[in-house]
Request: fold
Amino acid sequence: MLIIGIAGGTGSGKTTVVHQIMNELPDTEVGVISQDSYYKETHNLSFDERALINFDHPRAIDFDLLVKHLKELKEGKTIDQPVYSFIKHNRTDDTVSTHPRKVMIVEGILILTNPELRDLFDVKVYVHADSDERLIRRLKRDISERGRDIDEVITRYQNTLKPMHEQFIEPSKAFADIIIPNDKYNTVAIDVVRAVINQRIS
Reply:
């Protein structure tokens, strides 16, 4: 199994890159795991307390479970991925049954910050985007998909997103094998990743 880690700041275009890579590959051979599914469960906290969690800090992620699941997939086992609700700020009772594939793509803002997780990646990719562009995308997404208002999104960006990006996410770029600039010139980098995958699964 080839495991590819795709990191980058919030709104950098990681999901777009994942889709561009997957577009040319057979569905049956590629799976995707999102770091967002692995936020720690916080049933012991009230909704107001959960809303105050710094979701952009590595300690918000259940890396132990994510590492365990990837190792199980490598062993050919099926896993039950958790499902996270951004509206409730907590895990739901649902899980997603995920089968091993020839290629597993793991995507998330903090995945390159964890040494144990990095060791499992055969290819480490970082998607780079301008900070203004990332903020605009984040605003659009959180307002339309997650029911937030503009003041809430901007406050969160200033108080946690930006400082966490500078402290943890941007420095993790140093661990990447490939850095993809998220603009119209990224086709060469995408082709390189695709070539590596095709070589492995052909």
In short: Strands lie at 2-8, 30-34, 79-85, 90-98, 103-107, 123-128, 178-181. The longest strand covers residues 90-98. The mean pLDDT is 88.
